[in-house]
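Example complex used in Figure S2.
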Amino acid sequence: MLPTIAWRGRSVIMIDQRKLPGQETYVRCSTYIQVAQAIEKMVIRGAPAIGIAAAYGVALGAMALTAGTGRSLDRDFEKIYQRLERTRPTARNLFWALERMKAVYERTRQQGLRAIRTALLEEAKAIEREDSVTNRAIGRHGQTLLRDGWTILTHCNAGGLATAEYGTALGVIRAAVAEGKRVRVFADETRPFLQGARLTVWELDKDGVPVVLITDSMAGWFLRRGDVDAVVVGADRIARNGDTANKIGTYSLAVLAKENSVPFYVAAPMSTVDPTLADGGGIPIEERSPDEVREVGGHLVTLPYAEVRNPAFDVTPAAYITAIITERGVCRPPFEKGLK
Amino acid sequence: MLPTIAWRGRSVIMIDQRKLPGQETYVRCSTYIQVAQAIEKMVIRGAPAIGIAAAYGVALGAMALTAGTGRSLDRDFEKIYQRLERTRPTARNLFWALERMKAVYERTRQQGLRAIRTALLEEAKAIEREDSVTNRAIGRHGQTLLRDGWTILTHCNAGGLATAEYGTALGVIRAAVAEGKRVRVFADETRPFLQGARLTVWELDKDGVPVVLITDSMAGWFLRRGDVDAVVVGADRIARNGDTANKIGTYSLAVLAKENSVPFYVAAPMSTVDPTLADGGGIPIEERSPDEVREVGGHLVTLPYAEVRNPAFDVTPAAYITAIITERGVCRPPFEKGLK
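Predicted assembly (680 residues):
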């Protein structure tokens, strides 16, 4: 499958998602700082994928620990943890993965550096492995919602490149195709970072799934014309009531889908659900560099000093969501109970 | 004001809108074929502006007529007319301006080439001049709808560059500013051609009006957050019932504005109203080259062979429109009566 991220001989290898589809190049990270920077610069992106990357980051950080035990070891571990924690604020999976890694550290901190390192690396590998299994379960449940001959609209990239492999939203589509359903995908280009144009088109083309690229502004019109049978997107964080943070533009799609009576599905692992949030009001929304909007591929598209807003995510209220598909099954409103 | 289009010594000069804001260069057209190509390639764009360009195109075509009278003159005129008529299908103003030019030709066709040429050039100049007057009237009426301190969202460029000068949607904003109202503009970048990022930001920056550039996918989120007080857009064609064709993405904005109880205004001259259409169902929607979506400024953003849809316009049903602002005043629903 897609080589999103892999552990190879004391380092993490990631495909450089900033350069796709023009170049298939790989970035090797051999320190936790390099992993943190790769997440920040979006060499790797997608909520589950950055969770996996952060877990490997902790494992790499542990390789360089020198203090054997006690409070100075704790302090050094905390420094690694905090550096990775502050890379990106919105995706729940990042914190979920880091919390799992911390729990392993806490369980092994008295056992010496070698045991700590081994346990942390094993946990990171487990997180990666489980993500593959999870995505296939999401696909299995989600594909039951799609019918033969349908056109599916998706936004951003919730595919193999956003996960260990297979994907969440694109996992649902892959599973439908594997069931013999002929589906076609409309992919929003997803400005400013163009994950749809660059990554989703590339992934689906590799798999031979028919995909049509549109600009974000066209989605509503195709929904109105009846050209779209369902919308399926991923998620970065889901509150207990089902309010869902996902790539900026998702909220608009959900409103437009509802207005045109088209089902709107969110596909995400349970690790995206934030049990501490009652609703989406508390989800931190990352605001990224204005240059992402001012430029496309290094090419300036406006005045160099243009004032810009660049929220990377929005929150779709649960009321616009037809169902949330997780590895446990298809959860319908009210979501509070199903997401528990 | 802005040098969108001007008649200078037997030729038409247009600012090359494909190159803004990076380069301020001008294109000189001395044949009607060059004008037709300039409209097709979007050297000039915006419904009122392409009407003016087409009118000058007819005047230029007449300069090269050789047959003095009769049926061969009619045939030569018809060839010019048809070439300009098939440049772009959606904007009503193009056909409106051409019809005015044809009426002048029909009135003068018996008077000899010199009289025909003079009358056609005068008519083209009148169309340009009237457009300035019209825009200022639209601004005067429209600004009454905007309050001091408001943030106005606009899409594409319905500014001086889309008209003779001053603009329709941006004319409303300019008139509000002239009245001393402090308004701020959110400009959608407007993929694929980026009229918002390239033209609206440039125009408003020149006038000192505060403008914030966002991607098209962000507009819904800012509407939901309560950051936008009104949406004002232009129009390419308005049916008798108020259904409005405008730049792709306008329909989505109208739905999102309504969902969030934000007023949605269309600003356009009466020449945009198509009296032959009862509703928006009959408006032809131009589909442009896939390369406009595949590339940004010549930079490929997806697979070179990606399948693409590229409708340049959509139709917003009248039910989503709070008011239509023309040079005659502010028209509220039901629009059928007011637009007569």
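Chain A touches chain B through 53 residues (CB under 8 Å). The first strand of chain A starts at residue 5 and ends at 7.
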